[in-house]
Amino acid sequence: MTVPPEFYDEGALVGVMTTQPLGRALDYRAPEGGCYPGAFVEVPLGPRKVLGVVWGPGQGGFDLKKARSIIRVLDVAPMREEMQIFLTRAADYTLTPMPAMLRLATRAPGLGDAPSMRKVYRLGHCAPSRMTDARARVLEVLEAQRDQLFTLKELTDEAGTSASVIKGLVAQGVVAEQDTPRDLPFRRLDPAHAGKDLTEDQARCADALQVSVATCTYGTTLLRGVTGSGKTEVYLEAVAEALRQNRQALVLLPEIALTAQFLTRVEARFGAKPAEWHSGVTMTERRRTWKMVGEGGAQLVVGARSALFLPYRDLGLIVVDEEHDSSYKQEEGVLYNARDMAVLRASICGAQVVLASATPSLETWSNAEAGKYTRLDLPARFGAAVMPDIRAIDMRGEDLPGARWVSPTLTRAVKTRIARGEQAMLFINRRGYAPVTLCRACGNQIGCEHCDASMVEHRFLKRLMCHQCGETRPMPTVCPSCGAEDRLAPVGPGVERLAEEAAELFPEARIATLSSDMFGSARALKEQIALIAEGGADIIIGTQLVAKGHNFPLLTLVGVIDADLGLQGSDLRAAERTFQLMRQVAGRAGRAQKPGTAMLQTFQPDHPVIRAILSGDEEGFWRAEADGRRHAGVPPFGRMAGIILSAPDAQEAFDLGTWLARNDAPLRAVGAEVYGPAAAPIARIRGRHRVRLLVKAPKGVALQPAIAQWIAGARSSNNLRLSVDIDPQSFY
Ligand code: ADP
Ligand code: ZN
């Protein structure tokens, strides 16, 4: 490898990678004043100006007089070599074209804008004419942090006053107002601010992580511990160590609704809030975070999977909380698994990875077994909290009328809890009112016009919704198929219908329903969660959303309406997912001083997965599951890739699939096999017919180059789309 130059002088020929789908870097001349390797630049492309990154020396080989010049260098830190290597390796791994990868790494609005100004506040020189409580609080905040510049919002938040109080103080010269660039550094986090006294087990794990972080080298640790055992407390100590090393830390969370509670904990631990990165963050904050991460003005980022692609100046630690969560896999656009990419990125920049979970993925569990990852265990819940008692309710013995889902046994248990002033949760992993709407006159099930899926009634929204493409339409009163009036009937339960049943069963109870589609904004959801945590509801009815990490101290009973739901899929991970979800949901009960109970309604109490959940023999479950997969040669003991072909015309997709299956020499050369083509389980999405192929290969095979060569040979048309899913998580 050639050593990259330190600087390109004006006029030097450089290669610029743009975010346009060109597939390679284009040659340009360095602009007036020259530029650094990695500089973010604006370049002319045909009649347009586009964003790009100075990727390396130009290739030349054409009439150099025709080379155009870079228009300007943007006012942001150049991309580091480490980031370039990461993007290149991630692109190779996921078989993603580099421009698409680069788009992930430049997702900040207004990157090219000139820095704009905003007003900030600090202590002024005068004394106030009259002192009020509100004014005193403002002064207290400013005096305690004399070097700090506050935005109006930070100051009003911290002092608990209105903007007018501050403006009043500005008018008197008590508070000074000044203009600064909009993208200010984040407040400093203090690793010594307020550490908790850890239990012996927690301290052992925290020490081990701190020693690893202090080495400033790569390593991955599985931090396993039941819900409530203090994993968060422990990894915050690893974050503290990264801060002491003057390196940055990133905490990935699977669900934005979780960040609110987490931010509060970070503030309690380090004295200030970290930077946030997820879809709920405003455009200006996104740009600020992106820039400050690059300049070192953000020490800790809390975010969703795409936070992995921020331009960290010196990343020393990545925590992937709830590492088994399937939402870490991006299923659209660039298909990547944030957990795996976190390990890749850390291995390049010499950082530590902490994978935290109560129920690790089989991949991670077996990497720890194989010694590739270090494993740390937190055996017990913190304080008096004990693991919930998990029982099955055998639905074959319950007397339940049609269109009712809460068994008499579960109903009694809920009533007991409410009578004691405790909370109960009813869990069903299905959004909406009813999964199927059936016409009683003709037997037709209302389906989506664009997808091979039934429309789900959402009574709350008064609409039918397709969970594949998101298409909605008003709830009809007439059957779209036979025209019969008022004969449409809901079939099966969703979370909204369960809420309706609960309202009838428990008329006195305050019921809160939590489902991701019922809240207009992330903030509304956060508020609802906080309200519930404080005791603002007796019964919580929820989907998967509630399974993830929320802390409800009064909750002592969790009832799972349909524990068999996940067991029916043909999915390779069905057992693992059900096991994780049930353990996770059960873990919501009894987190504080009161012991909890989880009740699983099931028609198959003898199913091996249900038995493993009940007995709590986790290691036994993982070992059995690992044996099965090893035997079948499937992940993590073999490699897989999914190929999805889609086209408006089914035949066209099938023809290409057949061609690929017949011309599989590049795959066979490395010992890989191809299965299919077959219509995908969901054969149509958004009007496109879908055909799948599955590639299986032994572990350790260089699968990506073989696939690249294989699909490069396929002739394709504009209508056809081919996407490759390396290590697929879902098979729909
Ligand atoms: P996990 O991440 O494993 O679910 P948490 O870190 O959220 O566990 O801990 C569960 C609860 O117990 C939290 O409210 C946390 O603040 C509290 N807790 C855990 N360990 C300690 C400790 N050593 N001192 C005080 N509180 C603790
Ligand atoms: Zn649809």
Sheet with the most strands? 7 strands, parallel
Reported by name, the CATH topology of the largest domain is Rossmann fold
Helix fraction by DSSP (H/I, runs of at least 4): 25-40%
CATH class group of the largest domain? Alpha Beta
Any ligands, ions or cofactors bound here, and which? adenosine-5'-diphosphate, zinc ion
How would you sum up this structure, described in words?
The chain is built from 20 helices and 30 strands. The protein is of the alpha/beta class and 732 residues long. The protein has five domains: 13-104, PriA, 3(prime) DNA-binding domain (GIY-YIG endonuclease); 117-181, Arc Repressor Mutant, subunit A, CATH 1.10.10; 200-378, P-loop containing nucleotide triphosphate hydrolases (Rossmann fold), CATH 3.40.50; 389-430 and 493-625, Rossmann fold (3-Layer(aba) Sandwich); 638-726, Alpha-Beta Plaits (2-Layer Sandwich), CATH 3.30.70.600. The strands form seven sheets. It has a seven-stranded parallel β-sheet with strand order 11-12-10-13-14-9-15, sandwiched between helices. The chain has a six-stranded parallel β-sheet with strand order 16-26-25-17-24-23, with helices on both faces. It has a five-stranded antiparallel β-sheet with strand order 2-1-4-3-5, covered by helices on one side. A hairpin with a 7-residue loop joins strand 1 and strand 2 (26-29). Helix 15 (574-586) packs parallel to helix 16. It is globular, with a radius of gyration of 28 Å. The mean pLDDT is 88. Adenosine-5'-diphosphate (ADP) binds next to helix 7. Zinc ion is lined by residues 448, 450-451, 453, 466, 468-469, 471.
